[in-house]
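User:
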Amino acid sequence: MEDKIGVFICTGYGIAEALDIEALTKIVTGEFKITYCKTIDTCENRDLEFIRKEIQSEKLTRILIAGISPRRYTGTDFPAEVMVEKVALLEHVVGCQPPKEEDT
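Assistant: Predicted structure:
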């Protein structure tokens, strides 16, 4: 079975105010050729439920969640067969770079 990758980019917590989310999405879908990329408001509760539903409906086998600290949702129960990668945009990019600059 071929892997189907899904990317979820969080726009809450000041992330969208600091990053060009549209440009980031274009990199994901263009440069990295990921066909499934969605933005979410938060990396918590209802949006995590949305991700679970999307895993099922889109038959995603690998997902990347780019948002707040992965420590905030370590206990999240995604299907065991799905590889989950969590990227701390808030801590590692937004919190240490000037907002809306090219390098950010």
